[in-house]
Amino acid sequence: MKTKIALKNVCGIIVLMAFSACSETSLEGAWVEPIPGMENTTQGIKLERGGKASSINMATLQYETWEKKGDKLVLTGKSIGNHQTLSFRDTLMIEKLTNDKLVLKQKNGSVHNYQKQK
């Protein structure tokens, strides 16, 4: 009898762990925010499976890859301007992540409030 109860408890714990692992919110998707001074137009980041990233409405900042490291988002890409192209690697703090909201904070304190495009 005690073995049955213990087995049920273990099975219950395994099921809860499986559900919590499946319910983790994904960074994948298209995330946009209003362009400062042009609130009717958006810009942002598209994060795809496999670590591929791309920019949304940002011709001079071209994202190429992304990686989640704990509570940080690492983006790499190229900054284009003034007749030169520079590679960059930017690490941002993930302040908030839900199914439809992503808040990222830069090292300089700037905060970006993204909404997930549908």
Provide a descriptive summary of the structure in words.
With 118 residues, the protein is α+β, with helices and mostly antiparallel strands. Helices cover 18% and strands 55% of the residues. It contains 1 helix and 8 strands. The chain has one helix spanning 2-22; strands spanning 29-35, 38-47, 53-56, 61-69, 72-81, 84-97, 101-105, 111-116. It has an 8-stranded antiparallel sheet, with no helix packed on it. The chain is globular. It starts with a helix and ends with a strand. The model is unreliable at 15-23 (pLDDT under 50).
Ordered list of secondary-structure elements with their pairings:
Blueprint lengths: L1 H21 L6 E7 L2 E10 L5 E4 L4 E9 L2 E10 L2 E14 L3 E5 L5 E6 L2
Antiparallel strand pairs: 1-2, 1-8, 2-3, 4-5, 5-6, 6-7, 7-8
Lateral strand order in the biggest sheet: 3-2-1-8-7-6-5-4
Low-confidence stretches: 15-23
Give a quick account of the main beta sheet: strands, pairing sense, barrel closure.
8 strands, antiparallel
Mean pLDDT: 86
Number of strands: 8
Oligomer: single chain
Order of helices and strands: HEEEEEEEE
* Estimated share of beta-strand residues: over 45%
Rg is 20 Å
Question: What is the straight-line distance between the termini?
Answer: 51 Å
Helix content: 10-25%
The gross shape turns out to be: globular
User: Structural class of the helix and strand makeup?
Assistant: alpha+beta
> How many H/I helical runs?
1
